[in-house]
Amino acid sequence: MSEIEYREFKKNLIEDKEEFERSCRNPSGCAVFGVMNEGGKAFSGSMVMEGISIMHERSNGLGGGFAAYGIYPQFKEDWVFHLFYDDIISKKQTEDIIAKDFNILFSEEIPTSKVSSIKKSPIIYRYFLKIKNNSRFNEVDISKRSSSNLNLKRILKQREETFIVEFVMKINSQIKGAYIISSGKNMGIFKGVGYPEDIGEFFKIDEYKGYLWISHGRFPTNSVVWWGGSHPFGLLNWSVVHNGEISSYGTNKRYVSGFGYECTLSTDTEVITYLFDLLVRKLGVNLEIIHMILAAPLWEEIELMDEDVRELLKALRISYSSALLNGPFSIIVGNNNYMYALNDRIKLRPMVAAKKGDYLFVSSEEAAIRGVCISPDILWHPRGGEPVIGLINKKGSNAVVSSKNKSKILDRI
Questions:
Q1: In terms of pLDDT, which residue wins out, 1 or 150?
Q2: Would the pLDDT of 75 be above 80?
Q3: Cis peptide bond prior to 232, omega within 30° of 0
Q4: Residues 387, 341: contact at Cβ < 8 Å?
Q5: How many folded domains does the chain comprise?
Q6: 272: containing domain
């Protein structure tokens, strides 16, 4: 074998090995990483890029992404849609529909850079929008107008959010080749097919500044590989990254569909996003007890608890039985006002958290946190079913609910 033939053989061998590793099913291999500044101070996306890249071996080159909050301060009161288009036809159809209900303040193709490992991408656009005054969410009953201004604002806010949710569902389910991947205010999701560090470079994530970031490496375990199916998943101001598998997906999907949510992105993580929107925003479940629904204790554990807590947990399990997430998972949820992290109730997926001043970190691995924060003030491994909640307080006060700083009700469980 000549030297040239040997080099070609070795090159093909390496490529075959990499292709084999990417195709292997390794459901525990995902990487999740989140960081926020509780005082609302914006910082560069380079930190989250570095953190997620440290867990490179957990990825497979088929999916990566980021969600960022506070990145559009000049449009902070306006809706921002990030979209993937398969072609110009779907773009034209979608923009015609958008123009009927929204005033388009500004739109552009999202800036990207050339990355050698990313061979092909969809058409990627963003739109900054205001809902037109003649849209149906503004049609408040006369009887409601006699209520206080605060109640009226709340009603209008709820109707506006419901309008956005319905609009997203309509585009994603009815327009072939068009996908709204984020639809909140002063936030955006950037994701695609590739390693997360490559996706970050592609979207120039280091040029953005936000006060809260979550990220993901790898592609959903049981799905066809495509850009829209990568993490994070978003709706309104929610974004979710997830390591694991939701074996209760069928039950959860049927449950949210009864409230108008359509799962169109072909992966179990999407339903987690809709569960948070349904339970927290629409049904008003307190954020500090949402884990008692999603990762509820086992019935035999509930029976051993104090009577008042026992009765509460029984009521939650019965009322929201179809919202229980079964299967191994660790999730990080982003929102304009907080970051939320949760393991499944028997901790089948890794998760570690840390604090340094106003910064809160959550990660699949301790090494990723220490890679961007050498000496955290405190570092801990949350138990199964125990949430970590970092609250945005722009006055800068410490606000974390976790195993290190629990509410009264969490202390009793």
A1: 150
A2: yes
A3: yes
A4: yes
A5: 1
A6: 28-71+186-411
In 3-state terms, what secondary structure has residue 240? strand
For residue 366, which of 381, 377, 356 has the smallest C-alpha distance?
A: 381
Tell me phi and psi for residue 180, to 5 degrees.
-80, 115
pLDDT of 398 above 50? no
| Residue with more model confidence, 407 or 387 | 387
Spatial CB neighbours of 319, under 8 Å, sequence gap ≥ 6: none
Task: Please return the burial class of 146, using the count of CB atoms within 10 Å of its CB with bins 0-12, 13-18 and 19+.
Answer: exposed
Q: Taking 90 as the threshold, does the pLDDT of residue 22 lie above it?
A: no
On whether residue 356 sits in a domain, the answer given is: yes
With respect to residue 86, please indicate whether it lies within any of the assigned structural domains: no
Residue 12: band (very low, low, confident or very high) from pLDDT cuts 50, 70, 90: low
CA distance 168 to 2: 58
CATH of the domain at 297: 3.60.20.10
Residue 286: both structure tokens together: 């307190």
Assigned domain for 264 exists: yes
Q: Is the pLDDT of residue 87 over 70?
A: yes
pLDDT at position 167 over 80: yes
Select which of 24, 30, 263, 373 is catalytic.
30
Mean pLDDT over residues 305-325, rounded? 93
**pLDDT at 5 exceeding the cut of 70:** no
Residues 6 or more apart whose CB falls under 8 angstroms from that of 64 comprise 52, 191, 192, 194, 195, 196, 197, 198, 199, 200, 215, 216, 217, 218, 230, 231
Nearest to 346 by CA among 331, 326, 366, 361: 326
373 is annotated as an active-site residue: no
Q: How far is CA 104 from CA 23, 94, 112, in A?
A: 42, 13, 22
Residue 165 lies in a domain: no
